[in-house]
Amino acid sequence: MKRREFLKSALAAGATLSAPAIFSPAKAQSRQETLLIVSESGPNNLDIHGVGTNVPGYEVSWNCYDRLISHEMKTGPNGQPYYDKDKFKMELADDMKLGDMSVTFKLKKNAVFQDGTPVAAKDVKWSLDRAVTVGGFPTFQMAAGSLTKPEQFVVVDDNTVRVDFARKDRLTIPDLAVIVPCVLNSELVKKNATEKDPWGLDYVKQNTVGSGAYKVVSWVAGTEVVFERNDKWTGGPAPKVRKVIWRMVPSAGNRRALLERGDADISYDLPNKDFVELKSDGKLNIISTPYSNGIQYIGMNVKNPPFDNPKVRQAVAYAIPYQKIMDAVLFGLAKPLFGAPANAPTEVAWPQPHKFNTNIEKAKALMAEAGYPNGFETTISFDLGFAGVNEPICVLTQESLAQIGIKCTINKVPGANWRTELNKKALPLYTNVFSGWLDYPEYFFIWCYHGKNSIFNTMSYQSKETDTFIDGAVTAAANGDKATYEKDVEGFVDQAYADMPRIPLYQPYVNVAMQKNVSGYAYWFHRRLDYRTLVKG
Amino acid sequence: MLGLIAKRLLLAIPNLIGVVIITFLLTRALPGDPAAYFAGPAANKEAIEQIRVKLGLDRPLPEQFVRYVKELAGGDLGNSLTTGQPVVTEIRNRLPASAELTLFGLVISISIAVPLGILAAVKQGSWIDHACRVVATAGVSLPVFFTGLLLVYVFYFLLGWSPAPLGRLDVFFSAPPQVTGFYLIDSLIARDFGLFRAALSQLILPGVTLGVFSLAPIARMTRASMLAVLGSDFVRTARASGLDTRTVILTYAFRNAMLPVITTLGMVFSFLLGANVLVEKVFAWPGIGSYAVEALIASDFAPVQGFVLTMAILYVALNLIIDVLYGLIDPRVRLEG
């Protein structure tokens, strides 16, 4: 073989080597109509009413089922589409009439389930009955809007459903627009239900039986979920993407490589550092949105010494290295909730920044006043499931608290054990996140600060004044008494920031990275993807 | 031979009973409360209790154990809570993926390590001996996740030669009809060569990653045992009788050097199944290792028990095969057995 021929053949070999990146035209066509999403973990159940359905499962439910009502869109804080919590739009319902103690829905006449059966009032009632009866998370979420008994859901005629209010509660209507009150094909489920399992949990776990815009055509747990568009959908404008493939890629580095190589279309759970770098590269669209009604905080157990002393808690609040956490842990991808100007008025809003800043001198003085001039020893705990953010926060806090004499040992709690530990309410000092689907200040405070001590009141905080303010705000909201409501909201926020049982650090961001040719991303309270508005190409 | 196999299988029974008891107790001793985990972030005490009752975790331990053994006897390993699927189905689907990857990695490793080891022994002290030492040391000191990520970075991200690390197949291929569960074999049975190529190209990087990791023990063991054999009397006699070097080395020396190599292969295969866990994570491989680890993180008992049990059965089978192979290679073992 001559040298020139050899070079030629080597070149040809090189060309065939790169062949896997080139696709046949037919494949390219289906690629164009298909959206490939990569994320760390996938659903464990396609039914949001199931036992222990995980958060990725919510995404399936949202896209495959309809609710009576949903939300309109508005422009969010980052200039991107954002759900409008105050404006509702009809999804399965054609019309909503709000009475004094009930609300009546007329169903869309042409709405059908994915198997072609028309959606009837009995399906709606059966589905809502299911949500309030099966127990666990769905029942709990329904109760948050005072929807607790099957008797509250009444079939008026084939096409009309009435929801009776147990009491006046302004969260009832928003709670009908969350993921849980989705409508299932009741006849189909009943056919596949057994005596032991009257609500067909086993069947709906594996099959999507709604009227939603997408249906799951294949699901390999832990590996992939494949969705196809339901062309019979009546809930809104027809979605543009025909097929969605959602693959689980556990390694964050590979998810990033897939995006940068243009093989994956969307990913949303990359480390903050990757998002910052991808943003500055400019090759991808990166959209960051603060969690609605969500806060990462440092909590303290106020039942036991030394954190039962408000002076100690204030000292800690002065010793947290807020800015370092923002820069070194989050790379700026979060909304700070600290360091409001001393004269800033309290707003009728939540989350809002508190007035503490890092000030070691003040912290030391407060420790001395509290009777701990030499500090004390304690442990700071975090959930290993979110170690990427939690661990550096705890290390920085440990370092900073050492300066005022508080010696912390770091306690890493495995993800499976975290909720058990929180439920015991015995951890002295810890970091955690809480976020509520319903974006109302009093909703956050009922769960996190009220003396009835729900599991999210991880500090065991008890305050008569706070309880009065919260209860007042709930009643005022139900009755539309704006002045009292505002006064009460300001009251409980002030109280929380004076007593400081938990120290808000920041509002985390939902970061979504997508190819430049993908558009139509919208932020929802559940923070998962809505495939219905996404467009490729 | 059959007697040997039967005797071996009988001996395995107490082992398996032990494994069943220990896995049951160990999973119960794990920290973490599955009921609290699966009740979700918003659950209150009652909701957690409801789930505990649903899962049967409120019953006393002996009762749970009896139920577990009963179900096990019926071939039911329970349901995984993290993936929501029966453990038996999951293991049946995932074991071939892990086995295909491990065997592929082992084949790569053997085809490099054995010749390398022989050459190193024959030309002791030469550059090839040193090369063998360097390759083996480097291979064993690089953690698999690192080699894996490095290979992905170079061959997928920079060069674009390798397909996206998205598991066993590119998203636009669908799996061949299942016969063996090995995609390479099944795609050939289905006569779908495009699919075979796709499955092979997905296998190469993870296979090489595993192969590199297991080079060291095989190459070193081949070298050592070849050296011992090459120094023995019968090799000297063979040489003295004027047999050509090739025959001496391959027919006489290597066959006798194979016993320790086979033993090492058995060990390597078992630790590759373990090393798989990390490789599966890096390459999004839907194998049994990543399944078990995820279950462990979530205190999901059933898959962990199922995994350990499957592995125990695999080891018993593997040891049996190695023993049988011994007999085939070395008649002396057969007589004693």
Structure explained in plain terms:
The complex is a heterodimer of chains A (537) and B (337). Chain A is of the alpha+beta class and 537 residues long. Chain A is built from 18 helices and 20 strands. In chain A, the strands form 4 sheets. In chain A, strands 1, 8, 9, 10, 11, 12, 13, 14, 15, 16, 17 and 18 form a 12-stranded mixed β-sheet that branches. In chain A, strands 4-5-7-6 form a 4-stranded antiparallel β-sheet, with helices on one face. Chain A has a two-stranded antiparallel ribbon with strand order 2-3. In chain A, β8 and β9 form a beta hairpin. Chain B starts with a helix and ends with a helix. The mean pLDDT of chain B is 82. Chains A and B meet through α2, β1, α5, β10 and α9 of A and α2, α3, α7 and α12 of B.
Strand-helix topology:
The complex is a heterodimer of chains A (537) and B (337).
Chain A: H1 3-17, H2 25-33, E1 34-39, H3 55-64, E2 69-75, E3 81-90, E4 93-98, E5 102-107, H4 121-133, H5 137-143, E6 153-157, E7 160-164, H6 172-175, H7 186-191, H8 201-206, E8 214-220, E9 224-229, E10 243-248, H9 252-260, E11 266-267, H10 272-281, E12 285-290, E13 294-300, H11 310-319, H12 322-329, E14 334-336, H13 360-369, E15 376-383, H14 387-402, E16 406-413, H15 415-424, E17 429-435, H16 441-448, H17 464-479, H18 482-499, E18 502-514, E19 518-519, E20 535-536
Parallel strand pairs in A: 1-10, 1-11, 15-16, 15-17
Antiparallel strand pairs in A: 2-3, 4-5, 5-7, 6-7, 8-9, 9-10, 11-18, 12-18, 13-17, 13-18, 14-18, 19-20
Helix pairs in contact in A: 11-13, 12-14, 16-17, 17-18
Chain B: H1 2-29, H2 34-38, H3 45-55, H4 61-73, H5 87-122, H6 127-141, H7 144-158, H8 183-189, H9 193-230, H10 233-240, H11 245-282, H12 288-297, H13 301-329, H14 331-336
Helix pairs in contact in B: 1-13, 5-6, 5-9, 5-11, 6-9, 7-9, 7-11, 8-9, 9-11, 10-11, 11-12, 11-13, 12-13
